[in-house]
Write the structure tokens for this entry.
Amino acid sequence: MPNLRSLLNPILEHAAFRRALQSLTAAAADAHPPATVSGLTGSAKALLVAGLAHQLARPVVVLTGDNETAANLQRTTATFLAWLEPPSGPTVLTLPAFDCAPYEDRSPHAEILEQRAVTLWSVAQGRARVLYVPIAASLGRFQERALYSSLALEIKVGDELTLGDLTEHLEGVGYEREEPVSDVGQFSMRGGIVDTFPPEAERPFRIEFSGDQIESLREFDPTTQRSKRPVQAALLLPLSETKRSPQFFTKLVRALEKRVIPRGAAGRQTGARVEREPEWANEYAGPFPGWEFFASLVDPHPNSLFALFNNPVLLWDEPLERSAQLKRYLEGWAAGFDEVRDVVPPRPRPEDILLTEKEFMESVGAIPQLFFKELPLAPAPPATEGYSVDQERSMTSNLEERQETAASEAGAIKGQRGEGDLVLLTQPSPKFQAGLKGLVENLRGNLERGMSVVLVTPTSGKAERLRGILAEYEIPFDTVAQESSSAEPSHPGEPSQATGAALLARGDLTEGFVIPDLEQMWLSDSDLFGGFDWAPRRREHSGVSSFISGLGDLKVGDYVVHVDHGVGIYQGLRQLTVSGSARDFMLLTYQDDAKLYVPLERLDLVEKYRSGGDGVKPVLDRLGGTSWERTKKRVKRALRDMAQELLQLYAERKMHGGTPTTPDTPWQEEFEDAFEFEETPDQLKALADIKQDLESPEPMDRLLCGDVRY
């Protein structure tokens, strides 16, 4: 019976892959220019990265263009590497770039800060097999590996740990004190009990102390606040890569004073230090918007990203584009600094935070490198016409005409011309967009021609649907076990044969691809059913759905609420030049016509104002004032009182109990399967939640809301 390894092994034995592997393992890595592997689609690049990580006993770092590309390649690489090494759980990570510069007076998005902190801890711990990093993030200056290793805290029942040390650590790595704990990044303390919700945890943890010893560890439900089950250990991952503390901000104020005084003393006869505290000191004595960019002024950041790894290899995704992007990024930061050069206190210089181009090239100079390139290939034939291997092989003639371009890429980075460039011809897969007729004809034709076809879906539900389609149209197939590369026994009633059968596998491929030379076609979920993202979210943030996701809800003059600055008026969109590039901003005005420009990528911070009565106009807040903070504190107190009343009400309801219904019968399942349309993820979740409520002995308490669309 065929399996995934039987299909992956020929790729790893391909001449281009073997020579690429050999170039990375050569004794003198800098004695020759990097090899270039061309003809690769995005998913094919991810496959080669997984193959190299599988073959090499060293970490692999891949330079990409942006955060989205890095995330897509990360998911696909993790899928391939899991198929090559089941069930080892290989670690494939991304280190996202900041979504703002230090000259915009705002902090990077919280999720970016969290992901960077967790990734840097994993790298320092030696847990990263593959790291995808945008070129902008790779230019950063970093602290010593030991500091990143200390960002996370692993605790076990019986450990000696004081409450003060635990809370100090949590606050230092970005946790916020909140009662009750309901979302990631929060913690609370009640007597000898600490609740905390670390990143990448399914549920928050309740830590109970007996003196200075951890007596028990339990998971609890953030909705009901009730304990679920005991655990023996918990990993408290960080939310910030920079440890914050009162001492940190005291050092920062002193460092900024040293930069201000020489500037002020330049026109005086004496450079004596003025002892009185500068008027801006209070603003910088605690966390402020953009404080993360000032960390290098407090603690030294002497390392490049690659110094955090032991003996890495470096892969460039489209090296000429990355080289040009590197220059543009540094020039953009330099232009941004020129605009705020005279601001007091002074902002960090670009070279305080980023490596120069020369420093970056020196940091990678001794690392074995490999270039990936995607040449423009002819489009895939229409899905209804099937796929012809002979037709695709004829495309190699087009490749030969462009080899001169590919051969010069190594020289653009290393300063010399590349030799022996390699070609692994791949092509984007056909897109069926849920067109069953085209899919069936394509699969049947390719299987009859002897092509190997793999259908990859991210969820069991999609796999079941696909199995039903293939069985209905009598297309032979086998199912690959989820955590194994060998095929599992077929489901009852499934057609199955050793050859000429499509393979169904669980995984997450961003896009499919075809390898004509090996007569393989890999189809992703988006190829089969369209581009909708069916994968479940890692977690949901309470309240986010109420925030503005677009501009259709707003018109000029509407009142809005900014999470950090309060009530303002929406004045439309403005395009500003920041760090050398044009960007779109939402303009909000406050008291005294003060203006706030909100980048469009931070719309999650703005909500349309909704008053309790018609025609009631709110009072505008003052930028930098205290009225909004007082309002938020007052609302928090009111919410706590309301939560207490609700807890009492729900306790009384639970005491009365309810009448549970029986689980679904086969007739019910058959009735549901006859539904001719496909439910959306939200509909499936609503159905599952309602059924769970009905089968529970507790009173049902749910309101289902929906809308009719045409």
